[in-house]
Design brief:
The protein folds into three domains: 100 residues, Orthogonal Bundle (Fumarase C, Chain B, domain 1); 220 residues, Up-down Bundle (Fumarase C, Chain A, domain 2), CATH 1.20.200; 96 residues, Fumarase/aspartase (C-terminal domain) (Ribonucleotide Reductase Protein R1, domain 1, Orthogonal Bundle). It has a two-stranded antiparallel sheet. It has a two-stranded parallel sheet with strand order 3-4. It is mostly helical and 458 residues long.
């Protein structure tokens, strides 16, 4: 079967430049397991409904299984004129079983066939992403469990803000990943809809049983409108959007690992097996894994924008522009999975320099908010208390002093409400232990968050 499926309409063959330009086999061949899976179910339904004979279906299915083995083993030979994976498989099927192979395509179009392939592919890919998110969550939880009680500076605007428990910091990323997990789970629901049977755009004249195919392929729902079905790439955009948000979270995590591991911070030591060296500077230990994760974020954002832009002006229903959805989708899948895997190992293997981290909390007047709250507890309006403490901080900067070594007389010169007990609120331990709000950084709150995370990961 050397002629293309559609060549009966044409008096001249396609120009070789056009064949190369329109072919998608170079990238869509990775869909082969799903294409065969869908064809096996479709052929079984055709036989059960009497559209083709059972003997014909058996022959076609036997041939498809043989082709699957060839593809799995790498023995399958793609022909130069193969336009896409669907035509490659049908060509080979014709070579194996003869003209009956042409009956496989009864009551379907490549328009609904390719969407089925992509939906089947994304079902598997989403499961991989969800499993990978869980592995990264386990790494974060392990660090949170191992570093309970370690106090570190919390930052706003990259300036020292308030003391927090390091475990609280790790668990913040855990919560981000939980929302990512939820987003991909919701995406799975929208992906998990059978498109096959929509035909080219209008449905099928044959008495097909779409719900039977859905059962065979474990789809809980069947698409409702044939035009929407073949025109739809929302489910691809759902995945790419969820991936972009997840990658953004990974990038933020990576950014902190880069500067936390620097000589200027020395908060953490990254595992050697997840770092690289310099070709000229022997002392270097570069956080390349974190940097590349951060760098791939723009690529994954770009893939989302590429498909959004491709789809923005397309009339109903199918247009060949949609062929361009797969390269960015595949690229995002491959890079997202690899980023999740290496970040999980990087987080799990890092070591915390507790002493350095806690020493950092002695800088930057990090307990100043406690002092403002102290005055507010004594009846001074918080805005006024804020102004008073701000003036004290300014005084400390001018005198090169810290809040905990100013004498009481100096404090009283700013406000007579200050008493000796003010020094109790300036300790790091008081800062974290006095937090009463749900979800805050107190030891009790962090323990509850750890227990909650443990339940999720069971």
């Amino acid at each position: 079967m050397k002629a293309k499926l559609w060549e009966g309409r044409f008096s001249k063959p396609a120009d070789p430049k056009v064949e190369r330009f329109t072919a998608s086999i170079s990238f869509d061949k990775r869909l082969y397991p799903y294409d065969i899976q869908g064809s096996l179910a479709h052929v079984q339904m055709l036989a059960e409904t009497g559209i083709i004979k059972k003997k014909e279906a058996t022959s076609i299915q036997k041939g498809l299984k043989s082709i699957l083995k060839e593809l799995d083993s790498g023995r399958f030979e793609f022909a130069p004129h193969d336009e896409d994976i669907h035509m490659s498989i049908e060509r080979r099927l014709h070579e194996l079983v003869g003209p009956v192979a042409g009956k496989m395509h009864t009551a379907r179009s490549r328009n609904d066939q390719v969407i089925l392939d992509v939906r089947l592919f994304l079902r598997d890919m989403i499961h991989q992403v969800l499993d990978s998110i869980r592995e990264l969550e386990k790494s974060l939880l392990k660090q949170a469990e191992d570093n309970q009680g370690v106090i570190c500076p919390g930052f706003t605007h990259m300036q020292h803000a308030q003391p927090i428990l390091l475990s609280h910091h790790y668990l913040a990323y855990f919560q981000m990943l939980e929302r990512d997990y939820e987003r991909f789970s919701q995406t799975f629901t929208r992906v998990n809809i059978l498109p096959l049977g929509a035909g080219a755009m209008a449905g099928s004249n044959f008495p097909i049983d779409r719900h039977r195919v859905a059962d065979l392929l474990s789809f809980p729902k069947v698409s409702e409108n044939s035009m929407d079905t073949v025109a739809d790439r929302d489910f691809v955009l759902d995945f790419l959007s969820a991936a972009a948000i997840l990658q953004m979270h990974l990038s933020r995590m990576a950014e902190e690992l880069v500067y936390w591991s620097s000589l200027e911070f020395k908060f953490i030591r990254l595992p050697d097996e997840f770092c690289t060296g310099s070709s000229i500077m022997p002392q270097k230990k570069n956080p390349d894994v974190a940097e590349l994760t951060r760098g791939k974020t723009g690529r994954i954002y770009g893939n989302l924008m590429a498909v959004l832009t491709t789809m923005k002006g397309l009339p109903l229903t199918y247009n060949s522009d949609m062929q361009e959805d797969k390269p960015p989708l595949f690229d995002t899948c491959d890079n997202l999975i690899s980023c999740l895997a290496v970040m999980s190992g990087l987080i799990l293997g890092l070591k915390v320099n507790r002493e350095v981290m806690e020493n950092y909390t002695q800088k930057g007047f990090i307990t100043a908010t406690n002092l403002a709250n102290y005055l507010a507890d004594k009846g001074i309006p918080f805005r006024e208390a804020h102004f008073i403490v701000g003036a004290i901080v300014k005084h400390c900067e001018e005198k090169d002093r810290e809040l905990d070594n100013l004498d009481l007389k100096t404090y009283k010169s700013f406000c007579p409400k200050f008493e000796k007990d003010l020094y109790e609120v300036l300790t790091l331990e008081f800062s974290v232990e006095s937090v009463k709000s749900y979800g805050g950084t107190s030891p009790q709150s962090v323990k509850r968050q750890i227990l909650s995370a443990q339940k999720i990961l069971r």
